[in-house]
Amino acid sequence: MGGWITGTLSSMGYIGVVWLTFLENVFPPIPSELIMPLAGYLVAQGRMTMIGAVLAGTAGSILGALLLYYVGRWYGEDRLKRFADRHGRWLTLSSRDIDRASKWFAERGTWAVFVCRLIPGLRSLISIPAGIHCMGLGKFLAATALGTLLWTGLLVYLGNLLGENFERVGQYIDPVTKVVLGGMLLVYLWRVIRGTGHLD
């Protein structure tokens, strides 16, 4: 995958950055931890500008986040509740949990979206509950843009700083991603075993 990402960025420039960061948000196995540091390396070579690389990465991420937001909005809270009623145990979710989550998201949604855009493993996923709970599009875009701008800017800067060793950025961030996803998996298994998803 690394060779394909390198070839895409080298041949397509800023458009390649937009395209790959869009895909990275829709298909999380494509790593932003490689895409944006590589863009930073291209900045160091004089083939891109720092501002251009950051803006292109941010634009692609926002487009991907919007797609997932509208997927969540299309699926909707009522449909999710019906699904939870049928498969509560394996979802570790009940319709009552969804009501509580909706209330929580209404109070803290903007902050949650912003923070999650800075956490590997959660960056893409947060867009779906934002859509499901009908978070205001303006708030969603503002929180997503700000969080993404910071994350993208950091990765481009590190890639520019490390030069040919840009891949080391991914090596440092990858364990964090695995810890976050592993923690989510453990919590899920614990809730399944306890039967948290059963409806009262």
Features:
disordered C terminus; 200 residues; elongated; mainly alpha; 9 helices; cell membrane; 0% strand
Structure description:
The protein has 200 residues and is mostly helical. The protein has one domain (2-194). The protein has helices at residues 2-12, 14-26, 32-44, 50-75, 77-91, 95-116, 127-132, 137-162, 167-194.
Secondary structure elements and their pairing?
Blueprint: H1 2-12, H2 14-26, H3 32-44, H4 50-75, H5 77-91, H6 95-116, H7 127-132, H8 137-162, H9 167-194
Helix pairs in contact: 1-2, 1-3, 2-3, 2-4, 3-4, 3-8, 3-9, 4-8, 6-8
Oligomer: single chain
**Radius of gyration (Å):** 18 Å
Secondary structure tally: strands? 0
For the sheet with most strands, the description reads:
none
Q: Which segments are poorly predicted (pLDDT under 50) over 5 or more consecutive residues?
A: 196-200
- The average pLDDT value, as a whole number, equals 76
* Percent in strands: under 5%
Helix content: over 70%
| H and E string | HHHHHHHHH
Overall SS class: mainly alpha
> What is the helix tally?
9
Overall spatial form = elongated
Q: Into how many domains do the coordinates divide?
A: 1
User: How far do the termini sit from each other?
Assistant: 46 Å
Summarize it.
This protein has helices spanning 2-12, 14-26, 32-44, 50-75, 77-91, 95-116, 127-132, 137-162, 167-194.
